[in-house]
């Protein structure tokens, strides 16, 4: 399902629709289960919040945009972490403490 969605996304350009929302939900569910098996922690809840936030951005039509600088997030990055809210540059800045985390 994921692969089909990716090839269709490549053909159609970056399209936000019900299918991509479903893929994110599927992916989140499997990540959530993995996380849950190893450690129950705040990261579970945070991941769910980030996923819900990503689903909200799909509905609003601004999914795939960095919430910090507004640039489009690299599609490969979105494929790996569909709930990410930052482009790689802003993510790196944040990890170096140069950027504040935005509230979820
Ligand atoms: Zn950015």
Quick structural summary:
With 104 residues, the protein is mainly alpha-helical.
Helix-strand layout with pairing:
Blueprint: H1 2-12, H2 18-38, H3 42-60, H4 75-80, H5 88-95
Helix pairs in contact: 2-3
Bound molecules: zinc ion (ZN).
Report on the structure:
The chain has helices at 2-12, 18-38, 42-60, 75-80, 88-95. The chain is mostly helical and 104 residues long. Helix 2 packs antiparallel against helix 3. The protein is globular. Bound molecules: zinc ion. Residues 66, 68-69, 71, 86-87, 89-90 line the site of zinc ion (ZN).
Taking Cα atoms only, what radius of gyration do you get, to the nearest Å?
14 Å
Task: Please tally the β strands and state the result.
Answer: 0
The overall pLDDT average reads: 78
Strand composition percent: under 5%
What is the helix/strand order? HHHHH
Which segments are poorly predicted (pLDDT under 50) over 5 or more consecutive residues?
A: none
Number of helices: 5
* Overall outline: globular
Structural class: mainly alpha
N/C terminus separation = 28 Å
């Amino acid at each position: 399902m994921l692969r089909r969605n990716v090839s269709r996304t490549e053909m159609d350009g970056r399209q936000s629709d019900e299918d991509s929302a479903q893929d994110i939900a599927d992916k989140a569910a499997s990540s959530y289960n993995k996380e849950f098996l190893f450690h129950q922690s705040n990261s579970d809840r945070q991941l769910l919040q980030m996923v819900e936030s990503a689903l909200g951005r799909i509905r609003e039509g601004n999914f795939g945009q960095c919430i910090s600088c507004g640039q489009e997030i690299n599609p490969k990055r979105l494929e790996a972490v569909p709930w990410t809210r930052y482009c790689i540059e802003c993510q790196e800045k944040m990890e170096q403490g140069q950027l504040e985390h935005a509230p979820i």
